[in-house]
Amino acid sequence: LEVDRDSRMATLSMLNVTDARFPSLTDPERLAEVKAFLSAEIPKHVAPFSIDRLIASLDDGKAEDANYSTAPPNILYRDRPSVLVLIDGDPIWEAMEDSGYERVVNSPFLLARKGKSNTLYLGSQSLWYTATDVKGLWTLTDKAPQDLQKLLAQAEEGQAVEKPETPPEVVVSTKPAELLQTEGKPELKTVEGLGILYVANSPNDILMDINGQAYYVLLSGRWYSAKSLEAGDWSYVSSEKLPADFAQIPEGSDKDVVLASVAGTQAA
Q: Quick one: pLDDT at residue 26?
């Protein structure tokens, strides 16, 4: 922020978008490009705002945070390209007008079936999957019904999506969830001079405390810890109780983005 103390006004001069999610965007390199684009463009479109109103809203936010549950979401891990399909509870099927199809209305993804058929389809403009159970195994198909493909094309007119080189695995969750991904097995690199490792081949902020032999992941500004990524029993960790070395992560290093969520740092 650039602050004018005389006028009590602030201007957003820099923004770092650390996470972004789009149902049809699964390629890590393309996602990184989108985050960089948003980081560069958003500050250009934010009008100057009152410092006093900002302080008041932050105080309100702290009061609200005190009432939030710290229970971890369903944290899933895959070491290959994957896409997380969220459904808000058990699937609710409703008819798609004048089509003969039903779709799940409590999900942002297109999950459809013909009438009450047991054959389910999950679609985007570039890939289609099929399954017999929403929570079951989804397999890639090139035989999605043409009329269903046409319905999706009409709904997403002009939203061309590039087909990924490697079709992602479909991971479905009917409760709040987060998906951690690595490109192959985790590649751990050191934060120089500290007892911390970080996972270099992941778009997520995943660190390991060497002394405690525990993983820490930052999700939506909150920290969770587990002994294993694959079968982790994740638990919430307040920013005040992180390993001491977290606060020593150098600015300008590969993982300095987490400093805003580490108590006692200038960024926080």
A: 61
